[in-house]
Design goal:
The chain is of the alpha/beta class. It has helices at about 35-50, 70-85, 100-110, 115-145, and strands at about 5-10, 15-20, 25-35, 55-60, 90-95. It has a single domain, classed as YqgF/RNase H-like domain (Nucleotidyltransferase, domain 5), CATH 3.30.420.140. The chain has a five-stranded mixed sheet, sandwiched between helices. Strand 2 (about 15-20) and strand 3 (about 25-35) form a beta hairpin. Helix 3 (about 100-110) crosses helix 4 (about 115-145). The longest helix has about 35 residues, at about 115-145. The protein is globular, with a radius of gyration of 15 Å. The mean pLDDT is about 90.
Length: about 150
């Protein structure tokens, strides 16, 4: 079986989350400190191999009005690069409010400011991936019910 990698793409860090082998549950994998595109791609390539990843889900920061801003355009370019250079399926998931939700969860858990910064990106990746997994599961269930 294979797993799905969720990524919250930031300027300096990639928040990472992995699904279990049944694509049901997302768990934090950590945060990768970015240095260059080549280093990012090498790291992701190694991770894809070692964790048997079959698909990547990127959070797409859509504006509240539904438009795509400059950051969303960067994510679309990153998606294209990943598909071309890593030859893996890359999906997008609307990540509106995931970073804010991650911050809210960490505040309610009374996590210190310094610790929150290091955990927030991975938690945002978990929220992106879990949302994607739930959407995929719901679509599968709806498809099966229509076949009946």
């Amino acid at each position: 079986m294979s797993r799905i990698l969720g990524i919250d793409v930031g300027e300096r860090r990639l928040g990472l989350a992995l699904s279990d082998e049944t694509s049901t549950l997302a768990s934090p994998y950590g945060v990768y400190e970015r240095s260059s595109l080549e280093a990012d791609l090498a790291y992701l390539k190694k991770l894809i191999t070692s964790q048997k990843i079959s698909e990547i889900v990127l959070g797409l920061p859509i504006n509240m009005d539904g438009s795509l801003g400059p950051k969303a355009q960067e994510i679309l370019e990153f998606k294209k690069t990943l598909e071309e250079r890593l030859t893996i399926a890359v999906e997008l998931f609307d990540e509106r409010l995931t970073t804010a939700e991650a911050e809210r969860v960490l505040l309610s858990a009374d996590v210190s400011r310094r610790k929150r910064k290091s955990v927030r990106d991975a938690l945002a990746a978990v929220l992106i991936l879990q949302g994607y997994l739930q959407k995929k599961s719901l679509e599968s269930q709806m498809s099966k019910s229509q076949d009946l």
